[in-house]
Amino acid sequence: MPSTRVVTGHDALGRALLVSEGALPGTESFQHSPGFSAALVWRTRVGASVGVDGRIGDCAPGSVLPEPGGSCALLVTFPAQSSTLAAEVDGAAAANELCERLPGLGERFEADGFHSTDSIDYGVVLDGEIWLELDHGQLVHLRQGDIVVQGGTRHAWRNRGAQPARLLFVLTGAVRNGA
Asked: Where is the Cupin type-2 domain (predicted)?
Protein backbone atom coordinates (compact mmCIF):
# COMPACT_ATOMS: atom_id res chain seq x y z
CA MET A 1 0.00 0.00 0.00
CA PRO A 2 1.59 3.30 -1.04
CA SER A 3 2.17 5.97 1.59
CA THR A 4 3.01 9.64 1.28
CA ARG A 5 5.68 11.20 3.49
CA VAL A 6 5.27 14.88 4.35
CA VAL A 7 8.16 16.68 6.05
CA THR A 8 7.78 20.13 7.58
CA GLY A 9 10.30 22.60 8.93
CA HIS A 10 10.85 26.33 9.34
CA ASP A 11 11.96 29.16 7.11
CA ALA A 12 14.52 31.82 8.11
CA LEU A 13 11.78 33.76 9.93
CA GLY A 14 10.68 30.74 11.95
CA ARG A 15 7.46 30.19 9.99
CA ALA A 16 6.31 26.64 9.29
CA LEU A 17 6.93 25.41 5.77
CA LEU A 18 6.64 22.26 3.71
CA VAL A 19 10.13 20.84 3.25
CA SER A 20 9.14 17.84 1.13
CA GLU A 21 6.17 15.74 0.12
CA GLY A 22 6.14 12.56 -1.91
CA ALA A 23 5.86 8.82 -2.01
CA LEU A 24 7.54 6.99 0.87
CA PRO A 25 10.31 4.90 -0.69
CA GLY A 26 10.66 1.30 0.43
CA THR A 27 6.99 0.37 0.65
CA GLU A 28 7.29 -1.96 -2.33
CA SER A 29 7.36 -5.68 -1.56
CA PHE A 30 10.73 -7.35 -1.11
CA GLN A 31 11.65 -9.47 -4.12
CA HIS A 32 12.84 -12.47 -2.09
CA SER A 33 10.21 -12.20 0.68
CA PRO A 34 6.91 -11.81 -1.19
CA GLY A 35 4.44 -9.50 0.54
CA PHE A 36 6.99 -8.20 3.07
CA SER A 37 7.99 -4.55 2.97
CA ALA A 38 9.85 -2.24 5.31
CA ALA A 39 10.31 1.46 4.70
CA LEU A 40 12.46 3.86 6.67
CA VAL A 41 10.09 6.76 7.33
CA TRP A 42 12.66 9.02 9.02
CA ARG A 43 15.71 8.97 11.23
CA THR A 44 17.14 11.42 13.75
CA ARG A 45 20.56 11.47 15.29
CA VAL A 46 21.67 12.74 18.68
CA GLY A 47 21.24 16.49 18.86
CA ALA A 48 18.22 16.78 16.56
CA SER A 49 16.61 20.18 16.92
CA VAL A 50 13.60 22.13 15.70
CA GLY A 51 13.12 25.78 14.76
CA VAL A 52 15.10 27.99 12.43
CA ASP A 53 18.03 26.00 11.04
CA GLY A 54 16.67 22.96 12.90
CA ARG A 55 18.05 19.60 11.88
CA ILE A 56 15.14 17.26 12.36
CA GLY A 57 16.86 14.28 10.77
CA ASP A 58 17.30 12.65 7.43
CA CYS A 59 16.96 9.48 5.44
CA ALA A 60 20.55 9.35 4.22
CA PRO A 61 22.19 5.96 3.65
CA GLY A 62 23.59 4.22 6.70
CA SER A 63 22.28 2.06 9.48
CA VAL A 64 18.56 2.38 10.06
CA LEU A 65 19.14 1.63 13.74
CA PRO A 66 19.40 4.73 15.90
CA GLU A 67 22.38 5.44 18.09
CA PRO A 68 21.63 6.12 21.77
CA GLY A 69 19.58 9.31 21.84
CA GLY A 70 18.54 9.02 18.19
CA SER A 71 15.37 7.63 16.68
CA CYS A 72 13.95 6.07 13.55
CA ALA A 73 10.49 5.24 12.29
CA LEU A 74 9.78 2.19 10.13
CA LEU A 75 6.60 1.24 8.29
CA VAL A 76 6.49 -2.56 7.95
CA THR A 77 4.06 -4.90 6.22
CA PHE A 78 4.09 -8.56 7.25
CA PRO A 79 2.38 -10.95 4.80
CA ALA A 80 0.10 -13.67 6.14
CA GLN A 81 2.14 -16.81 6.88
CA SER A 82 -0.23 -18.85 4.71
CA SER A 83 0.78 -16.79 1.66
CA THR A 84 4.51 -17.02 2.39
CA LEU A 85 4.40 -20.78 3.00
CA ALA A 86 3.12 -21.28 -0.53
CA ALA A 87 5.95 -19.22 -2.05
CA GLU A 88 9.36 -20.72 -2.62
CA VAL A 89 11.74 -18.48 -0.72
CA ASP A 90 15.51 -18.49 -1.15
CA GLY A 91 16.58 -17.91 2.47
CA ALA A 92 20.05 -16.63 1.63
CA ALA A 93 18.75 -14.20 -1.01
CA ALA A 94 16.01 -13.00 1.38
CA ALA A 95 18.59 -12.40 4.14
CA ASN A 96 20.85 -10.47 1.75
CA GLU A 97 17.94 -8.33 0.59
CA LEU A 98 16.97 -7.58 4.20
CA CYS A 99 20.52 -6.43 4.93
CA GLU A 100 20.63 -4.28 1.78
CA ARG A 101 17.28 -2.60 2.39
CA LEU A 102 17.57 -2.28 6.19
CA PRO A 103 21.31 -1.88 6.86
CA GLY A 104 22.27 -2.34 10.49
CA LEU A 105 18.97 -4.03 11.30
CA GLY A 106 18.96 -6.82 8.72
CA GLU A 107 22.21 -8.26 10.12
CA ARG A 108 20.54 -8.77 13.51
CA PHE A 109 17.99 -11.28 12.20
CA GLU A 110 18.46 -14.96 12.87
CA ALA A 111 17.24 -17.61 10.39
CA ASP A 112 14.00 -18.07 12.38
CA GLY A 113 13.19 -14.33 12.37
CA PHE A 114 14.25 -13.64 15.96
CA HIS A 115 16.21 -10.44 16.54
CA SER A 116 16.93 -7.76 19.13
CA THR A 117 18.14 -4.19 18.99
CA ASP A 118 19.68 -1.77 21.44
CA SER A 119 16.57 0.37 21.46
CA ILE A 120 13.23 0.99 23.09
CA ASP A 121 10.62 0.35 20.41
CA TYR A 122 7.04 1.49 20.13
CA GLY A 123 4.98 -0.59 17.69
CA VAL A 124 1.45 0.29 16.58
CA VAL A 125 -0.69 -2.17 14.63
CA LEU A 126 -2.24 -0.08 11.85
CA ASP A 127 -3.96 -2.89 9.93
CA GLY A 128 -4.50 -6.61 10.44
CA GLU A 129 -3.32 -8.72 13.32
CA ILE A 130 0.05 -10.14 14.30
CA TRP A 131 1.64 -12.29 16.98
CA LEU A 132 4.70 -11.16 18.94
CA GLU A 133 6.80 -14.18 19.91
CA LEU A 134 9.28 -13.76 22.75
CA ASP A 135 12.44 -15.85 22.91
CA HIS A 136 11.07 -18.36 25.43
CA GLY A 137 7.98 -19.14 23.31
CA GLN A 138 5.43 -16.77 24.83
CA LEU A 139 3.03 -15.42 22.18
CA VAL A 140 1.09 -12.16 22.37
CA HIS A 141 -1.75 -11.62 19.87
CA LEU A 142 -2.03 -8.00 18.72
CA ARG A 143 -4.86 -6.50 16.69
CA GLN A 144 -5.47 -3.23 14.87
CA GLY A 145 -4.97 -0.33 17.27
CA ASP A 146 -2.86 -2.31 19.75
CA ILE A 147 0.51 -0.92 20.86
CA VAL A 148 3.59 -2.77 22.06
CA VAL A 149 6.58 -1.28 23.90
CA GLN A 150 9.77 -3.36 23.74
CA GLY A 151 12.89 -2.77 25.74
CA GLY A 152 15.58 -4.46 23.63
CA THR A 153 13.99 -7.92 23.93
CA ARG A 154 14.78 -10.82 21.60
CA HIS A 155 11.59 -11.44 19.62
CA ALA A 156 10.02 -12.38 16.28
CA TRP A 157 6.87 -11.31 14.47
CA ARG A 158 4.43 -13.97 13.18
CA ASN A 159 1.44 -13.12 11.03
CA ARG A 160 -0.84 -16.12 11.56
CA GLY A 161 -3.83 -14.18 10.24
CA ALA A 162 -5.34 -14.36 6.78
CA GLN A 163 -4.47 -10.76 5.77
CA PRO A 164 -1.26 -8.70 5.73
CA ALA A 165 -0.45 -6.83 8.95
CA ARG A 166 0.89 -3.29 8.75
CA LEU A 167 2.78 -1.80 11.70
CA LEU A 168 4.49 1.48 12.45
CA PHE A 169 7.58 1.19 14.64
CA VAL A 170 9.44 4.05 16.32
CA LEU A 171 12.82 2.99 17.70
CA THR A 172 14.71 5.14 20.18
CA GLY A 173 18.37 4.26 20.56
CA ALA A 174 19.39 3.05 24.00
CA VAL A 175 22.41 1.65 25.83
CA ARG A 176 22.21 -2.07 26.64
CA ASN A 177 23.11 -2.91 30.24
CA GLY A 178 23.86 -6.37 31.65
CA ALA A 179 23.66 -9.62 29.73
From this structure: 115-170
DSSP 17-86: EEEEEEE-TT-SPPSSSTT-EEEEEEEE-TT---STT----B--SS-SSPPTT-EEEEEEEE--HHHHHH
3-state secondary structure of 94: helix
Q: What is the pTM of this model?
A: 0.90
Q: Which CATH superfamily is domain 25-173 in?
A: Jelly Rolls (2.60.120.10)
Give per-residue pLDDT as tens, 30-66. 998 999 999 999 998 888 878 776 667 776 668 999 9
CA-CA distance, 117 to 66, in Å (whole number)? 10
What is the residue extent of each domain of the chain?
25-173
